[in-house]
Design the sequence.
């Protein structure tokens, strides 16, 4: 007597595989290569349509001429060319692996940047994080309020999808992208191709922007503002202090002149014409002022007042420059130096 399940039909997934691999496609490596080539050639027109759809959705999520679009433009310029290529040809399996890899590496690098206090600490952290995965660090970015709970879930989901594809685990891929019923290795591509990959691309960009923008204060987002702030902050303290420290005053005048040119060099490049003029006037007076200290109090006091006034004017011009691209409130004026001329002797 035959067993009752002997004539039971094989699962639908197996039937589809047999129809696809044995009844439709020809066998042979050369045939496979030719078919892959033909598939890529035929993907050009559908790829153009996919790009039209992608751009439309990107415009919705990152409106043109907006700050958010600027961030998206920067992220995609450096990181997403390969992902766009894979999306164009419809290779969603490779696309999921690429997107997950981008997020994971970006997160690991930025986590080290965020925590490290110097280059030595950064190297140690990079070594410590080298074996971490996106699942390990996703929660960190929620803890520091850069990602939401939904962002963490997405990062973990795309990691599971990536792991399923990379390790040929169709059940895992099917669980996160399909009905959870597929189990054949050969079903993976069919599952991924049936999915709209656009939301995954957009969410990937959003996660990267949140980290890239979040690790720097918003006022540093404009490169010219950042450059001026760094240059002006470097020199304003010394300017208001009239370079009155023993080591500088004791230097030969020729050395002082060279050092002043170097110290103010970046400020000259980034500053307005008015700012450059005022710094020039300041530099004309600062070395003679040092020469007069303890020698001629009357002339020294006169130059002191002129230099203090010029220092204030330089600070105000710097604030005006910064105000062009951002908020200058973070640029704080240091106190001016107070000098007891009666106690200075040469």
Sequence:
């Amino acid at each position: 007597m035959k067993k009752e399940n002997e004539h039971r039909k094989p699962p639908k997934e197996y039937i589809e595989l047999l129809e696809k691999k044995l009844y439709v496609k020809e066998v042979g490596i050369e045939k496979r290569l030719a078919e892959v080539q033909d598939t890529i050639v035929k993907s050009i027109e559908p790829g153009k349509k996919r790009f039209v759809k992608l751009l439309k959705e990107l415009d919705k999520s990152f409106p043109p001429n907006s700050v958010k679009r600027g961030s998206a433009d920067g992220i995609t310029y450096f990181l997403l060319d390969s992902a766009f290529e894979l999306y164009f040809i419809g290779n969603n399996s490779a696309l999921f692996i690429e997107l997950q890899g981008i997020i994971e590496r970006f997160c690991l690098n930025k986590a080290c940047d965020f925590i490290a206090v110097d280059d030595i600490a950064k190297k140690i952290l990079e070594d410590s994080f080298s074996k971490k995965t996106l699942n390990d660090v996703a929660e960190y970015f929620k803890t520091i309020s850069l990602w939401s709970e939904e962002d963490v879930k997405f990062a973990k989901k795309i990691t599971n999808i990536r792991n399923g594809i990379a390790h040929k685990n169709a059940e895992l891929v099917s669980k996160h992208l399909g009905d959870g019923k597929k189990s054949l290795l050969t079903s993976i591509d069919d599952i991924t191709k049936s999915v709209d990959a656009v939301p995954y691309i957009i969410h990937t960009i959003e996660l990267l922007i949140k980290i890239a923008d979040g690790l720097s204060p918003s006022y540093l987002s404009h490169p010219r503002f950042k450059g001026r702030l760094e240059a002006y902050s470097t020199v304003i303290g010394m300017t208001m202090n009239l370079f009155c420290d023993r080591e500088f005053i004791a230097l030969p005048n020729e050395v002082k002149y060279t050092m002043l040119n170097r110290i103010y060099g970046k400020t000259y490049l980034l500053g307005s014409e008015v700012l450059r003029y005022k710094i020039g006037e300041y530099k004309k007076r600062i070395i003679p002022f040092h020469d007069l200290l303890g020698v001629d109090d009357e002339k020294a006091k006169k130059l002191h007042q002129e230099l203090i006034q010029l220092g204030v004017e330089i600070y105000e011009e710097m604030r005006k420059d910064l105000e062009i691209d951002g908020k200058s409130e973070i640029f704080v004026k240091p106190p001016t130096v107070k000098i007891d001329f009666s106690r200075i002797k040469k």
